[in-house]
Amino acid sequence: MSYKVPLNQLVNIEITEDKLSARLQFIQDDADFQCTVGDLEELLKQSGVKFGIQFNILSALAMETRKFVYNQVTVATGIPATEGAPGEINYLFDMDVDKKPSIQQDGTVDYKEVINLNNARKGQLIAERILAKEGTDGRSVTGELIAGKKGKEARFKVGKNVVIDQEQLRMYAAMDGLITRTDKDKINVFPVYEVNGDVNYNIGNIDFVGTVVIRGNVLSGFRIKAAGDIRVIGGVEGAELHADGSVDITAGILGHNKGLVKAKVNVKSSFIQDANIEAGNEVIVTQSIMHSTVRAGKNVICQGSKGLIVGGVIQAGEQVKARVIGNSTSTTTVLEVGVLPELRNELVELRSKIKEYMENADKTDKALVLLDQLALAGQLSEDKLLMRNRLSSSKKKSIDELNELKDRILEIEKSLEDTSTSKVEITGTIFGGSKIVIGRYTRFIKDATQRVTFQMVEGEIAMISK
């Protein structure tokens, strides 16, 4: 060493505040000054620098000392600690659904399918919490460990009708309903889906696991399915409404002979016109039922201020009650009670099938007669033999199926005989042209009659005046 003063008076060592780097600076320009890598390393250690020393830089400093005078040079570098990845919430539903038409498999666009509701069943998993990751440790130039920082944890924002598991890792629906994000990003499950307006191309078809409330009209061609009730504050046109509960329509149904309103419980409406209605329990109308097909598992009641039923077919498992049936022009109006509508309609279908089977059986018998004649004459070719065998097998199968149909018809007809609770009650007038069917019996009304009840008495439909 050619310097006369201590090295630490000629060299300044500075450690940054975060201790992730150390800098060296020569503070005197002395032509005779020389040092070695070992000298500089020793000086760094005396200054507390023990880790991350860059010996290639120390070598350059020792070889060309004057070149670096008055310039700070980083001679040691630490390893910074890192922060782990933050936690996050993984939603199992798309919480930012845009309304857009659905593209079908064939490439066509269904403009009635514009939104998919986030339906959830009770107990269904809604979201999962992914934990934050641990950070990695670092080391300072002074050799100290720098602890890594764990990422920030995400937390569920709990709204109504949702539950969190004990580990705070999963969110579940506490009831059937619509998953909805509300203020401050809280997640809720609501049992009712409301539309503040008409069901049209802006809303599209609706399929919901709870109750649907429409504060407007349901236009022709659209469909609403609900696992609960459907309530329409306006009216319903030629649309399809299917409810596992009841359907309640304030302004009435004008079906244009299209669509279907079907409920597993009740259908209520102010009026029904040119529509198809099915209810598992009751159909209740306050004004009128006109030229419609109405089926109810128990009762059809039309007893409001008008209480009018004109045209169409009314089927009820037990009773029909109305103020007025038919009109003065003898419009055909059919009232059927005493059997579940689906059974009565099944009976019609079964009889149609039997007629078809009988016609086919007649054709088969005629064909087999011809083939038998060819066989006796020794003129039955191989393909005709195969046809004969096939027709014989088909005939046997048809006979078995025909017997099953007949057994089912007998079963339904037996149920038609239990008509003890069946009746048609008119509190006003029933006009000629009306037809009363109770069980398997039918009565045609020729003249207008007031305040009567039709029910079975001693094997026939009796008209009982009030």
| Overall spatial form | elongated
Number of domains: 5
Range of strand content: 35-45%
Q: Helical element count? A: 5
* Distance linking N and C termini: 134 Å
Which regions are unreliable across 5 or more consecutive residues at pLDDT < 50? none
Q: Please count the beta strands (DSSP E, at least 2 residues each).
A: 35
Radius of gyration: 44 Å
Structural class by secondary-structure content:
alpha/beta
Helix amount, in percent? 10-25%
Q: Output mean pLDDT.
A: 87
How would you sum up this structure, described in words?
The protein has 466 residues and is an alpha/beta fold. It has 5 domains: 7-77, no CATH class; 88-190, no CATH class; 193-280, no CATH class; 285-338 and 418-466, 3 Solenoid (Pectate Lyase C-like); 343-413. It is 20% helix and 36% strand. The protein has helices spanning 7-10, 37-46, 55-63, 341-376, 382-416, and strands at 11-15, 21-26, 73-77, 88-91, 102-103, 109-110, 119-120, 125-130, 138-139, 145-146, 162-164, 170-173, 177-181, 187-190, 192-195, 206-208, 211-214, 223-226, 230-232, 240-243, 247-249, 253-254, 260-263, 267-273, 276-279, 282-296, 299-302, 308-316, 319-325, 333-337, 423-430, 434-438, 441-444, 449-457, 460-465. It has a 21-stranded mixed β-sheet that branches. Strand 13 and strand 14 form a beta hairpin. Helix 4 (341-376) packs antiparallel against helix 5. The longest helix has 36 residues, at 341-376. The radius of gyration is 44 Å and the shape is elongated. The termini are far apart. The mean pLDDT is 87.
